[in-house]
Write a structure and sequence with these properties.
By secondary structure, this protein is an alpha+beta fold. The longest helix is centred in the middle third of the chain and has 21 residues. It starts with a helix and ends in a 6-residue tail after the last helix. The chain contains 13 helices and 13 strands. Helix 3 packs across helix 6 and helix 9 runs antiparallel to helix 13.
């Protein structure tokens, strides 16, 4: 049963080993199928994975096919699959540069545009045991990012398929290597120093996309010299809509050379960012980068990516300014 799917697990397990993301008997992977979850067994060697090392279990962890025992991280896989049903694949790897970086530092500095789009602000979850015994912090962080670092333990990455989950591990490992090579890390668990954090707490908070919130967002952009200069330099003339899919509230910002000249409720904007209230709140409250939320599928976006890329410096400044109008 599931011979094709098992072949996929074997292929990607070998890739993990070849890249050095797992060694010896470390790491574990799982794939959701129609009758349950295919998962690697305890103490197996991913670099030499065999069909007999792959078990079929139900959503409670009961073995439906196979004679070995489930990986010691079985609870972690089951909990993630339950909370994030859209995540078909889970990979737990022990990528060495990532592990080394977060042993000494609290966060990752991202140096490439691609990594900024796909990784964002990666933080490590403290671990006191060789296996994940407290799953809740992992689940909470996976709400913000599809890849999570486990301090002194490795990473957990989720995706709709193996390529998606694997690529995040690969990209994070590359950036961790760059960080270690140039030794340039901004040490801050939340991406803010103490003064920034104190200032952020003093800022007024708004109801998401309320009249006061919209007015403040417009004011922040139109009164910022850097945003205006970038807007003229890159010719930011477009319509950008933000929509709360929970209640249907939508606001469309009309830009002309970087300045917001009006707002309305038009949902047919050139660019649209649509997401649940909880995720939009995280974006405005500095908990997740809007570009990362888009590339990881936390929010839905519509628009010409080529133009978005061209206007990237302006949009980065815009979103940075909007962080000054946090949501209640």
């Amino acid at each position: 049963m599931y011979e094709e799917e098992k072949s996929m697990l074997i292929y990607w397990a070998k890739k993990l080993n070849e890249k050095g993301f797992v060694t010896a008997r470390s790491g574990n992977i799982s794939l959701k199928v129609d009758k349950g979850i295919l998962i690697t067994s305890h103490d197996c060697y991913l670099g030499e994975l065999k069909n007999s090392d792959i078990l079929l279990i139900d959503n409670k962890g009961k073995i439906l096919e196979g004679t070995n025992t489930v990986t010691s991280e079985g609870k972690l896989h089951l909990s993630i699959h339950e909370k994030f049903p859209e995540a078909k694949v889970i990979i737990h790897a022990h990528s060495p540069y990532t592990t080394a970086l977060f042993y000494y530092f609290d966060k990752l500095d991202v140096f490439s545009f691609e990594a900024k789009f796909y990784l964002g602000n990666i933080k490590a979850i403290p671990q006191d045991t060789p296996t994940v015994t407290d799953v809740e912090p992992v689940l909470k962080e996976l709400e913000n990012s599809n890849i999570v670092v486990l301090s002194q333990h490795g990473v957990v990455s989720v995706g709709a398929d193996f390529k998606e989950a694997f690529s995040l591990i690969e990209l994070l490992e590359e950036q961790a290597k760059v960080n270690l090579f140039i030794k340039r890390i901004a040490i801050s668990g939340e991406g803010m120093d103490k003064k920034e954090e104190a200032d952020f707490k003093k800022v007024n908070k708004y109801e998401l996309l309320s009249k006061g919130h919209i007015e403040r967002l417009v004011e922040l952009v139109n009164s910022d010299r850097e945003a205006q200069e970038l807007g003229k330099k890159y010719g930011l003339t477009c319509t950008l809509a933000v929509k709360d899919t929970d209640n249907g509230t939508c606001v469309c910002f009309h830009y002309k050379d970087g300045k917001i000249i009006k707002t309305d409720t038009d949902e047919n904007a050139e660019f649209v960012i649509a997401g649940k209230y909880s995720m939009l709140k995280k974006i405005f409250n500095r908990q997740i980068d809007p570009f990362v939320a888009s590339t990881q599928g936390k929010v839905k976006t519509k628009g010409d990516f080529t133009k978005m890329s061209k206007w990237y410096p302006v949009l980065v400044r815009t979103f940075k300014l909007w962080e000054q109008a946090p949501v209640k």
